[in-house]
Amino acid sequence: MLRLILTTLLFIISGIAFAQPSRSDSAVVSFLRDEFDVRFSDNNSVVFFKTGQEKFDDLFQAVRQAKHSIHLEYFNFRNDSISSLLFDLLAKKAAEGVEVRALYDGFGNCSNDRPLKQYHLDSLHHRGIQILEFDRIGFPYVQNSFYRDHRKVVVIDGLIAYTGGMNVADYYVVGKPEFGAWRDLHCRIEGDAVAELQKVFVDFWNEVTGERLQGVKYYPGLRRAQDYFTGLKTDTTSTAGRQQVGVVNRIPRQTARIMEQTFVKILDNAEHRVQLINPYFTLTPKVVRAFKRALKRGVKMEIMVSAASDIPVTPNVTEYHCNEFAKLGADIYVFHGGFHHSKVMMVDDSFLFLGSANLNGRSLKIDYECNVLIADSAATKAMQTIFDTDKHTQCTRMTPEVYKQKPARRRFWNWLLHYSAWML
């Protein structure tokens, strides 16, 4: 009888040990709290959008139901059909008395092929939309090369927030002729993490305008978003309403090290598996070393990169780094379903890191960026499903043997360019 009891206890203890989550998520959460005072809350729901159509359908539905304030911060608003529809809707809400504020980056605006012009801004102001350009590009131009605002944040009534990799452009829905579909990932958050994203916008708005937005109307406290918004995509995971989320906000000269150090900390604490998608895989030296340390520890590494790119030099440098990692055991998946602009990393089946930050020098060391760290296994599983579907249906493998078949001239250029491309 005693032997049976002991056996049963050992079985239960071993079961508990195997059921414990990975320690990597708690290590990264503790690092962000201790080093950068990142606030984590555990009462959130997160919904993922894997296409531009999904994201804009949901966003427009939420905007239609706004009662108090709509805050939008994007790298750019392309002057096309999607932005026109959005601005019409925002003007209607402004006429109803909703406060509408929008920020976009000067370089982001002039670098797209259909920028907003001054007469567009004048029209929008006349229609009640407070829209401002951060750091407008002007002669002698060099002063505009630093500290671009690359964030993508929308907060509605202080109750729901959107963030991820998408700007406002119709090619997120219809693609581009040169490479087909434009793939990206975005999310909507409900819970206390919304206040942190609201703070990202409000603090930057105050910095740009000199105003002092504050008060309960922008931070209403935790309320059930379902009581105020209908028709939105729902979080169907088993942990809905109980997900731990922290906002990782890179501010030049204030939290300058946060993004690069977070990626390094994630890689250095990964125990079992890392899966990631990133469009500009040009990597700083510190991040390269962190990848190699993880691979040498035996971490299973699955890296998805895009065969197509909107920046010519990126595929060369990406191929070089991927080949180096493949030689250390990484599984490299080359996406052929268009341009994959997503920026997401999943670790140990327990947490994910998603947002605006690319794995290049600009995002990690220069620009304003915003990511969310979601320490939740069910949310991570939902994102892994998206990753695995693309991996099996739209990717080919790149191995060292496949890389050797590329022309010698291309391999030489890949090697040469990787020395400086991380600064782009």
Explain what you see.
With 424 residues, this protein is α/β, with parallel strands linked by helices. Helix content is 40%, strand content 21%. It contains 15 helices and 17 strands. The strands form 2 sheets. It has a 15-stranded mixed sheet, with helices on both faces. Strand 11 (300-306), helix 11 and strand 12 form a beta-alpha-beta unit. Helix 2 runs antiparallel to helix 9 (258-269), helix 3 runs parallel beside helix 4 and helix 9 runs parallel beside helix 10 (285-296). The longest helix is centred in the first third of the chain and has 18 residues, at 2-19. The model is unreliable at 1-21 (pLDDT under 50).
Radius of gyration: 22 Å
Number of domains: 1
Number of strands: 17
Main sheet properties: 15 strands, mixed
Number of helices: 15
Low-confidence stretches: 1-21
Shape assignment: globular
Distance between the termini: 69 Å
Spatially, the strands of the biggest sheet line up as 4-3-2-5-6-8-1-9-16-15-14-10-11-12-17
The secondary structure category is alpha/beta
**CATH structural class:** Alpha Beta
